[in-house]
Known about the structure:
By secondary structure, chain A is mostly helical. Chain A is built from 13 helices and no strands. In chain B, a hairpin with a 5-residue loop joins strand 4 (83-88) and strand 5 (94-99).
Amino acid sequence: MVTVEAAVNRRTRGGTLARFGAGLGGWAWGLVVLVYLGAAVMAPLLAPYEQAVRVDLRRALEPPGPGEWLGRDELGRSMAARLIWGARSTLTVVTLGVGAGGVVGVALGMVSGLHHGGRFDAAATTLVDAILALPRLLVALLVVGLVGQSTQALVVAVGVASFPSFARLARGATLAVRQREFIVAAVALGATSVRILIRHVLPNVLDVLLPYTSLSLSTGILVVAALGFLGLGPPPPAPEWGSMLSSARSYLWEHPHLLVVPGCAVAVLTVSLSLLSDQFAGTRSRGKAVWIRLAKPETNSGRRGGTDA
Amino acid sequence: MRKWWIWGTVVAVLVGLGVSGAGWPAPAPRVLRVAEATDVVTLDPAFAADRPSHSVIGHIYERLMRYEYDPRSGGIRPVPELLRRLEVSADGRTWTFWIQPGRVFSDGNPVDAVAVKYSLERILAPAIGSPYRPLLEPVQRIEVGGPDQLRIFTREPYSSLGENLAAYQTAVVSPRAAGRLPLREFGRRPVGSGPYVLDEWLPGQQVVLARNPEFSGRRPWADRIVFRPIPEAAARVVALEAGDVDVAMRVPAEAVRRLEGRAEFEVLRVPTTFQISFEFNHRRKPFDDPRVRRALNLAVDRRAIVERVLLGAGKVPTGPAPEGVTYRVALGEYRYDPEEARRLLAEAGYPQGFSTVLWTPAARYGKDREVAQAVQAYLGEVGVRAEIRVWEWGAYVSAIARPEKEAGLYLLGVSIPTADWRFYRNFRSDAPTNYSGYRSPEVDRLLDEARATTQEARKQELYARVQRVLWSDAPYLFLYDQVLLVGVRRGVSGVKVLPIETVELHAARAQ
Amino acid sequence: MFRFVVRRLVLATALVCVVVVLVFFALRVVPGDPARLVAGEGAGEQEVRAVRGAMGLDDPLPVQLVRFLAGVVAGDLGTSLRSGRAVREEIARAFPVSLSLVASGMFLSGAVGVTGGMLAAVVAGSRSDRLLTGAAAVAASVPAFLTGTLLLVWFAGKLRWFPAGGFQSVWHLALPVATLVVSEGAVILRVARGAAAEVVCSEYVRTAVAKGLGSVRVLSRHVLPNVLVPVLALWVADFGRLLGGAVVIESLFALPGMGYLAVEAVRYRDYPLLQGVVLTLCASAVMAGAVGDLVAGLVDPRLQRGDG
Lengths: 309, 511, 308
């Protein structure tokens, strides 16, 4: 039966099984992620780079079949090889870009949230909202103008495109937890902002941020795809998932494998990361439920929740 | 809490309804609907640069001449529209035009020599600032000789004046209307003498033309014509398939098989005057050596590119001017011969090849980056290691105009349909628009002479020689002539698409 | 609360001005010449220079800036270099298109996402939860043009239930909104699930359950406010971003909105139009953010009390 009561009971039941998740199924997704990382790192061992860039027009748009199990792209290059080698540049750029944007954004958002209503909060939030609204193309063009047409520029562009959402989300999540008892208590006890943020706020906002982070990677790849025509990133014929996705657009109907191959790669990675982050969060919250009970015994009796709502 | 969601949904629906305004329009009895890739920019002929604007201008205005396309011969030639008779003086400097009498603008004013003089002087006037002034540059003065007689005097003999007067930019505008409205306004409230008038223009949504009651020429079938901008190629095809439009311009090559597979649609394949090439940077070694240039032209398999990369939306060029350009001659294809290419390179002093930089814009010419990578691969096979640099169009246009640019070769297309204008712009030494830096005294001499000659036969011979010289001198890596694909609903007949990529519906009708 | 909102609005005006001025200068640093781009192929070099002068681009930068700012104060955002129409007019035409798309889309996304997310959180760990999470992850990683094209070809092309693009009636918005809901709804669902799961195990909810309150009541009165605050933050952020950022959807469905306008303005370096668009988008996003915070305060009164 789907009730909140059942959910709550399931969650707080202690025991070894509950501690480590419903079996190891959840952690299996981590293996998928490792495979991606492995492919990126071990690309030279898996397929020669030449295969990813050699043009063979006679075999252009060949569908998947024996020999080339993922087919060939619009210039006759091996989709499989391009996928493997593309993993390197795409994953690097997107991880760095989204990572940088995420770290900056979350830090900004958490500080804003903690000092909700203050000057810093007002200024930071307004600035974030303004940057958010700037057309991505314009921002990328400005980045190119300042940094030049390089992979660094692409990383910066992706970072700038991702950080505002992280900032806003982190701020919202911080607001939601900041009235919690243990935080109020920590403030009362005179802990510094940084300490509060890292020890008390961060663990709680992770539940909201982790799902978003796993999705933001795929968003990052799509941003890279959209910015491809600005000349950012590695110059052709270097393979890159984003540019593979955008050139596959026109071939959608006749030769879907051009889109399906990188699209599935991205989708599988996103799903794996999502389920993996859930697994991580699930383990933590089961542990946390115990921790709350242990940490604040005096608040357990007779409390009716901390709101008037 | 629940109230929020109800309230929110109501607001959202109201907002959607409120801003939708007109609601679904009821179809008029005889309407032709065309889907274009971009919106009309301006309907002021002196400023119109893009194809959709030209198409609409062709329906609202009339010109002294217009372009007629003969699919059999593949030629395009100017034929009279408002013109009744033309006399050119022996020295080629005085042109006397007689125009059709009795024509009226849609605002009732007569189309007379005064109006034509006004329209042409408009392009020349610095105060107006038309970018197309070079079209009529050698014109010294224009005189009205009678209600329908006009005389144009040129500084030097300028035999191309005739064909230039078929350009959309020379369309005849109503002096009363143009004089009364501020400059930018006229582009939105045009007054011409063509079979249609502008009925409604919702930017980004549609341009609607209605029948011009004052039009005295042959009545077209359609009461209304609607031009709709649908930027996404796939969406244009869907609109055609769904019956939302009758003609879909610029159908992507990938959708052709799907459309032709259905009986209700046909696909027109129109060769265009658009030729795409890699211009060589003659200011950089080794591109100043014709052997190197010829070698690179032999190194590329154009047939494979046209068939495999463009999927048939192109033709292998047979000369520096594609079908549809005036005075064009077919000279035969550059064959694919990498052996000969390597031999020529060795002879020129590059047995190991050399390195260079290749520039391409992105998202400007369909498949530009793919073509660039294919060419990079072909060049690699003969030892030329080209590093690709992709540019955004806005920055690209400025970058290629710089003489000191780093590129060894850069992708660019030309679509001008008249020989004089086209060759002059690109190949005349010291022409400001000659970005490649190509210099050939022979070509200069031939072009100057052709411009001055009034005898047709001599002119043809001169232009033929220009094309032969250019073809063997290879100032560019000539790649392909673009083929325009247009989807038409089978019930619609008489749709004319010109090699200059505009559509004419004057003779079109639908069942 | 009131003081906070006022402070936000004052700051907003100042910051938006700063951003617009920065963009003004940045635009002119970026390579590209509007005169050449607008004049097109076939234009003479001298004439392009003349066009540039006519566009007012030869004047010294500070003069251009003052002209622009003076115009803004007077309500005149300048004239588009490409179309010749008043920038104000172009924006007034494009903004409602984007607003209706994004407003409807985000409302539905929010409804779908929050409901789905809370339900998923309640059955967290079970197979249906994994399925839902996986589906949401897939939906969020599918590019918008794929979703949109599939919808367009199926529902407009084959089934003809909806028109194939344009902006003339509510029906024209159905497919674009659906495309938006698929990607945005998925993200909101995941975030809502995270927030709900986080609070379901708190002793706050356990107390409510122990008191014997029914599921629905617990969900709506105890879980929902906690979920809404972070979701609202994301919602507001995406709303602001999509107002000018739904280019793919606008271009696919031929909706002449702000996103498409911005892209065209960038492509042709139409400075006045771009400045006007940036000003409008920034102001709207900042305002949406302020409104969002207000709503969050109403949803969870604990937030009303801001620290100094």
